[in-house]
Amino acid sequence: MAKILATSFDLSSLSVVAPPEAAPVKSRLHVWAPVPGLSTGGLVQPLAIDLGTQASSTLALEAVELRYKILLLHDAAHVAGEYFLIENRFPGAPLRNYDGPLGAGAVVIWQIYEDRQLVNGSVICPGDPRFIRMRKVLRTPAESEVLTWAGGSPVGFLVSAPIPDGELAQISLQKV
């Protein structure tokens, strides 16, 4: 099972910061993410993408098991309540990860709920009490996921992985 890292990221500089007592809520993301590298001393390095200003694009994402990189997708209107994490779960050779069911690797999309009311009222997974939810595993180039917020409203992006199973995965973010 993955260890969980609780930390706070300042979006203006993407540096890890100590959570201040009285910081404005919308200026920070509090990330609770599965961190497989934590057991070996690695820390996840997020690339934060503001979906409110992001155009359609294709990005390269290094394997979280090997380079500890993830994508963090957020929107200013939802940042205090929910956001998405995308990981390239390519295990390397020999297999080094705990994701046996992923086999040779895949791109995994997580939805993180900071606001507990969103967990209770989610139309995405009603009745599911978890605040970290796996939304989709992209194993093939043909698979994709249209992102939606907890209340069911569209995020406005479709995520796919033209190259989902390598040390350097290709992630496509398409405006819809």
Write a brief caption for the model:
Helix content is 6%, strand content 45%. The protein starts with a strand and ends with a strand. It has helices at residues 64-67, 116-121, and strands spanning 4-10, 15-17, 28-34, 45-50, 57-62, 69-74, 82-88, 107-113, 132-138, 144-148, 154-163, 168-175.
Offer a few descriptive terms.
176 residues; mainly beta; 5-stranded mixed β-sheet; 4-stranded antiparallel β-sheet; 2 helices; 6% helix; globular; disordered N terminus
Q: What integer is the average pLDDT?
A: 74
- Annotation field: number of helices: 2
Succession of helices and strands: EEEEEHEEEHEEEE
Beta-strand residue percentage = 35-45%
The counted number of beta strands is: 12
Q: Can you summarize the main beta sheet?
A: 5 strands, mixed
- What Rg, in angstroms, do the CA atoms define? 16 Å
Helical content class: under 10%
User: What structural class do you assign from the helix and strand content?
Assistant: mainly beta
End-to-end gap? 35 Å
As for the number of domains, it is: 1
So what's the overall shape? globular
* Oligomeric description of these chains: single chain
**Main sheet strand line-up:** 4-6-7-8-9
